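Chain A, query sequence.
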Amino acid sequence: MNIFAGVARGTIASLDLSDAYLKDTRIIGHSASTIDDLRLTLLQAETGRLSPSRSVAAVGSLGAARDGLEAVLDTTFAGKVVIFPQINEMPLTALPDLKDTLPTVYAKLKDGREWTVEAEQEFLRLMLP
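Chain A, predicted structure.
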């Protein structure tokens, strides 16, 4: 399911997130960018001029989804909240706080603040049931 309804910021909607875990359903939102904007973004990511991983600010388990949605609404983080429905229980955690909670994941962040493929692999190694 890809959610974009052109509604005003702050609009509240109820979402049953159980299918994200039970049926491997994904729910994402997008900016409604033009195809040309998307092509430019993809080109910049492919050439290294843009690092999409820099947008990840916090991670958590499905149990942290509500906190993640509230953090987005309250603009708690200057970036994206990524919820991993398949992992063991984990509260919403800002990337810098991984230094204390998951130090081996933190060690694989770029400059201690940027999500990387290696950090995600270590995160999943530790957090998958």
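The first strand starts at residue 2 and ends at 3. The CA atoms of residues 57 and 71 lie 11 Å apart.
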